Amino acid sequence: MIVHYAAIDDREQRQSAAETLLFFLLAGAAMLFATFTAAYLIRRAGPDWTPVPLPTAAFIAAGLLVLSSVTLHVKRLKVTIALGVLFAVVQAIAFRQLAQAGVYLATSPHGSFFIMLTGVHAVHVLGGLLALCAAAAGRARVGLVAAWWHFVGGLWIYVLFMLKAL
Amino acid sequence: MTMDHAHAPPSFWSRYIFSQDHKVIGIQYLVTAMVMGIVGAGLSVWFRVQLAWPGTAGLSPEQYLSFVTMHGTIMIFFVVSLALSSGFANFLVPLQVGARDMAYPFLNMLSYWTVVPACLLMLASFFVQGGAAGGGWTAYPPLSVIAPFGMTMWLLAMALFIASFTMSSLNVVTTIFNLRARGMTLMRMPLTAWSYLVASVIGLLSFPALTAAAIMLLLDRHGGTSFYMPAGLVVSGKPLSYAGGTPLLFQHLFWFLGHPEVYVLVLPAIGIAFDVIAANTRRPPHGYRISVYALIVIAVLGMIVWGHHMFTSGMNPYLGKYFTVATLTITFPFAALGVNLVASLWKAKLRINTAMLFALGLISAIGTGGLGGLYLGNAAADIHFHDSYFVVGHFHLMIGVVTMLGTFAAIYHWFPKMFGRRMNEPLGRVHFWGTIVPAMLIFTLMHFQGLGGMMRRYYENTQVYVQPVQGLNPVISILAMVAFAAQILFFVNFFSSIFRGAKSEENPWQATTLEWSAPSPPPHLNWPGELPEAPRDPYVYGTEGETDFQPQWAEPQKATK
Question: ipTM more than 0.90?
């Protein structure tokens, strides 16, 4: 029923279009997390702000993403995908660690931010994983997917830094 | 890659329903917006009855607020955004820059089919317990957090809308940056295409703020978090367990989108006016380059002035000063656009048709609407005017009248390109006068009601001091009904002209821009043969040979000849 057709015949045009698309996707995602940062800075000035200890799994997850960026850099796509999936698993463990420490979504505003940002970030990781699979199947350019993946990895380190240090 | 995909898609479904053709999608957006427009405008006529003759409209105060909220939401996001931003951007951008389609046709189809459930969800929210959202289109907490379930549906519908708008805008920017025809440099693009580029970029950069705001609002509603909710709230005698949040945060995030959204809607209307006026004055629009720069400056400034919606919300006076100065600075690029529009008419021989009438009306509405903005952008004056009908009159002129006049100008102007037929001219003129006279009167009179102290969103204004302006309410309501009735003419004209309108040739207005080189209606992939090229500027008029215009796609004649 759905006919796939490309509006672009020219290979170079198609590549540059993909670059533009990626650029604005990155800009939009950056704006999203910039907004969350602003919200975080305003909210943390509230009278009830009490930091919760961040789960150790979240830091291990950051290490996994860094590692996955390295494996992607040396073009080991399948290893990268495996590390990405492992990242999601470790993040789930982080949620469990938080729950064991008695921190749920509504327990503390700091914890609310951790859980919300983890979730929103996970959606971006999921998008990256799908793109990686497309790249592994030869249906997307590795270079572009890598740009997104490095961004998502950097984003997680940034989020952790914000939650820990600010 | 070969051109074997150039054949029109075969079945009815893939051709008209799940189409990936930008022209079909553009028309789908337009018709969807028209349907939503009946609802959105109908709501306003309904609650205007309550304002004019209290108690006769059969609305409870809660229903009244929910009608006001849904009128605003539907008109801004599901009528003007759909018709003007997504609809005409889809139809015009590839044709004007000389592309076979949008860069990502599948994404384009997805964007339309994401907005359809958004529309349905929004409409369905009227029928859930507690009714549709009633906290105003701005959805300020704490009210929006404790509101009934309709508010959740509102938020989810908005989330779908944002997703759709993002996909549509991504297509516009990728198409414009990468798929322009040979010779079509950025500074050779028609102003309509420019305005869509600028509007799409600000949309892409500002909608994420609303996304973040909506996620936190949903969590406050259903997750028990306190991003926005302060401590000590008591609702219906019951203390709430929230603590520590700040409702002001939401206002900042909302207006970080809300203000740029105004330009997302208004700039394309202005771009369209330039194109329509150029074709009907037989001259290039005045100051093309200045207009382009003005569009960009407005976009940049428009992103950093959101605080002027919050002068009375509680703000450091120094911050208020900044927002005042930044807001009033927008006057300069905006005035440049206005002056260029007027100067385009200076000593020109006007060819008056319906599209031109709407474009001329648009200039007038920008001037009238912009005047109120000077007062509201200034913190000192705004504290007096805030939340009064002065504000209602002002923003309706800008994002209501200017955008609708722009949309109608576009429809009458490009209808022949869409369907290969013209719309009925006498009916169009009646529609124009039936729209602009009531519209300008309604919103100008509202300014005076606001000066008289009448407040927006009140179910009934019973204060003694508003008595002198109370009598305007029935007048405004009757004018609103007239304006609504005039739209019936438009609907009749639109749908009957699709089948019975006079046949139109390729370029009925003798316009110069690239879309007029395609057949009317353009076939699948827009040009039957090779893509056109753009060897010259978009608006070249004046005699050189037999015609008074030199289309952008025609080779310039050699100077030696």
Answer: yes
